[in-house]
Design goal:
It contains 19 helices and 19 strands. By secondary structure, the chain is of the alpha/beta class. The N and C termini lie far apart (57 Å).
Amino acid sequence: MAGFVVWLTGLSGAGKSTIASRLSEQLAARGRVPELLDGDEVRTHLSKGLGFSKEDRDTNIRRIGYVARLLARNDAAVITAAISPYRDVRDEVRGQTPGFVEVYVRCSLDELVRRDVKGLYRKALAGELPNFTGVSDPYEPPLQPEVVVDSELETVEESVEKILEALVRLRHIAGPAPESVPEGEELERAIAEAARLPRLEIGSREHSDLYLLASGGLAPLDGFMGEADYEAVVADGRLAAGAPFTIPVTLRVDDAATLADRLALYRKGRPVGVIDVQSTFLTRPEVEAEAVYGTSSDDHPGVSLLRSLPRRALAGSAIALEAPSSGFPANDLSPRRVRRIAAERGWRTMVGFQTRNPVHRAHEYLQKVALELVDGLLLHPLVGETKSDDTPAAVRMACYEALLAGYYPPDRVLLATNPAWMRYAGPKEAVFHAILRRNYGCTHFIVGRDHAGVGKFYDTYAAHRIFDRYRPGELGIEILRFENSFYCRTCGGMASTRTCPHPSEQHASLSGTRVRELLAEGAPLPAEFTRPEVADVLRQPLVKA
């Protein structure tokens, strides 16, 4: 894609550098290698020796603009963070720079004074600092910037999201368009159109993928993969443009399926989406199995499923007309809705937790350790299709509700469903889950010793090691790698191999098989393993049976 320049302007202390740094991470996660030109660094190197007269300030901005323009000509995504106080020179740079996106970082003087730990604003207001922008020297706000963010009223994440949405709208980066999940009258029109289109029936897994693609949950991917992305993901664990992405997301159809340029996607007789078909191609199941699952054994559920699917795949952008239902509508929150709730609660950081199993004390321990580091916790249990012997999603959700009712601060936890289906791809799925949680607004993600594993197919902690393949900030989310945790009878509490010196004989832990045996026998689950309220929920399905 062609280069562009995001030009952040605003008073000193408004938050330009912080926003620029976070935006840089997000662009990197979307496969665009960003170049960041920070005003203070430019002053130290490119503009060393310049003063703060209007002439010198203009020279500084022209130099930044010149370098940014050269980088953008070579398809770079450039971010500049400089006060650039004068409107005329900013407009001059705009006129010379294709792909110029002006972002006004607004903040009141009172708030800037409050933030100013060095006391520069107070000195300027007292007349002790000449030529101080916004006090003793003018700042001319943009008249028609592409984006206005208010760092006094918005979190950094909210401001960055505004900028990213503008970059998508201006076609500088790929991403989910707002109309990918239509609402109101637009939804009614889309459903009416779907009734007139050729139909393609899809299953629950494809419906889950469709919704996550359309809602931005799998950004930067915004449609079912084409051949170039498919081959790149299988070969390198990245999209063709370079963004990390470890699992193919494809719409596979048999050769007899009705094909057209535009198809209505139906699930159990209801229209759930529309796809604009851009191409078809043949997948390579055997190569994909080894690359994604690390095995070709049919004993692996992901490999077995892969071999049962048609080889032909449709590629194209899609819209979702209906979200998959978990049976918990209050918790079926879109990525955008989760981000907004987090922002409304004032969470600047949020950690995501993935599970397909009933919650137990080890989970609780990991979550609460993480809550000591961040503002909020997104409990995000997977409710898409899982193996037949996994605990049903409804039971798992009920366990979480029982736990949250008595053991967590309600203002610091958000329970939302994750509509994805389980691949059991171990390390590759750990990265996939991290990317998904980043798109839901998480700044951190918990990864345990056997994330998304099944059977003996993955080495212990392989899901930790895979993240070493990525540069700092490349995924746009920080990974919290936790050791195996347990209740230690000698310590008298929860611990892990990093904190407990006692032998394994003192560690209370139960396998999933033993838990099912105890439940079947009607025997109580040890308090060291799970809370009694959770144990009560787990027993209920067996009583009903």
